[in-house]
Amino acid sequence: MEKLTLIIATLAFMASVVSIYFSLIHVRADFTVSQNVKKDTITLMSTLVSLVHKGAIYTQQDKTNRDDKNSSSFVDISHEKLTLQEFMTSPTAYAYLHYAARKSSEAREKHQPEVWRNIFLDMTILASESNPHHAAAQAAKIMKSYFDFSEDNSFEEVLIEVKRLSDAIDIGYTELSGNLTVLTVYDELADELIAKETQ
After folding, report:
1. What domain range is 167 assigned to?
2. SS3 130
3. I want to staple 58 with a disulfide (CB 3.0 to 4.6 A). Which of 37, 75, 81, 152 is the partner?
4. Residue of higher predicted confidence among 26 and 159
5. Which pLDDT value is given to residue 94?
6. How many domains does the chain have?
7. How far apart are CA 44 and CA 150, in angstroms?
C-alpha cells in the first residue's frame, strides 16, 4: 500500500513538473511574440518617419536634377521601401491583418468609419511609390490614420490583439474578404479561377 501511495505521489509530482515546464514554454513564447511585435512596429514607424524626412529634403532640392540617380544628393528611398515590404510579409503583419479585420467589423456594426479597412492597401501604395515627395505624403497619411496612439487607439490594445498569432491563423478568408478592400475586389475573380480548375 505504501509503495502504491509513493508511486501515485511520484506520478502526481511529475505531472506537476511537466505542467509547469509547458506553462513556462508558453509564457516564454508569448513574451517572444510580444517583443517581435513591438520591434516590428517600431521599425515600421521609424521607416515612415524616415520617408517623411527624406520627402522634405527632396522638396527643397533643385527640380532640374533631383531625380538624377547619379547625383550625390539624390534622395534614395529604396531601403525604406524594402523594409516596408519585409514588414508586410512578416508574421506581425498578418496579426495586424487580424486586428484590422476585427476593428473594421466593430466599426461597421456601430455605423462608424472603417478606419483600419485600408491599412495594407495604403502600405502597398507606399511600397510602390518612387517619388520621395509622394512617398512622404503617403507615409504621413499612414502614421496619422493608423498609428496615432495618443487618441482612440492604445498600443497596448493593438499589442494584446496582434500577439495572438494562433488566433490570427484561425481567421478565415471569408472574414478577411468582408473587411479588406483588395480581397473584396478580387473575391469574384478568385471564384472564377477556382471554378475553372475544378471543371
Report:
1. 2-197
2. coil
3. 75
4. 159
5. 78
6. 1
7. 17
